[in-house]
Specification:
- It is an enzyme of class 3 (hydrolase).
- GO terms for molecular function: cytidine deaminase activity; identical protein binding; zinc ion binding.
- Its cofactor is Zn(2+).
- It comes from Penicillium desertorum.
- It contains 4 helices and 5 strands.
- It has 138 residues and is α+β, with helices and mostly antiparallel strands.
- It has one domain: Cytidine Deaminase, domain 2 (3-Layer(aba) Sandwich), CATH 3.40.140.
- A 5-stranded mixed sheet has the order 2-1-3-4-5.
- The chain is globular, with a radius of gyration of 14 Å.
- Bound molecules: tetrahydrodeoxyuridine (THU).
């Protein structure tokens, strides 16, 4: 299934992901990550990384964001945006790629924003080829 979002949706998605960097709890790395996911019903849900004094316990922005969307009852998504302060834009870590894959299709777009607001976009298939997912357990 091909996913397309409108220019207006992308503007809102990026603005919210970039704005969500301000909500990051990252006293250890000081590396702010904001994220926003657009549901097929047209809702924008944001999140950010939440670190912990026991470092491995911290959670990435992507998983905080998607977790919030899931517990709010959403299951279908159109696009995800992730924003950092670095250049070039950072891409989701391996654990997050698998986490995102659970709820998305191969053509699902992930937009990555650098600190200046420039973006690159990749599909889930590009980020995590030959992946394992829910269908393999049926
Ligand atoms: N981080 C994310 O939130 N998303 C990623 O995809 C990569 C890394 C966070 C985790 C940690 O709080 C900080 O960035 C530095 O690794």
């Amino acid at each position: 299934m091909a996913h397309t979002i409108t220019a207006q949706e992308l503007t809102t998605l990026s603005t919210k992901a970039i704005g969500a960097k301000a909500t990051a709890y990252c006293p250890y790395s000081k590396f702010r990550v904001g994220a926003c996911i657009l549901t097929t019903s047209g809702e924008f849900i944001t999140g950010a990384n939440v670190e912990n004094a026991s470092y491995p316990v911290g959670t990435c922005a992507e998983r905080v964001t998607i977790g919030a969307a899931i517990v709010a009852g959403h299951r279908d998504f159109k696009a995800l945006a992730v924003a950092t302060d670095i250049k070039p834009a950072a891409s989701p870590c391996g654990m997050c790629r698998q986490f995102i894959r659970e709820f998305t299709s191969p053509s699902f777009p992930v937009y990555m924003y650098d600190g200046e607001g420039n973006h690159k976009v990749m599909t889930m298939e590009e980020l995590l080829p030959d992946s394992f997912g829910p269908d393999h357990l049926k």
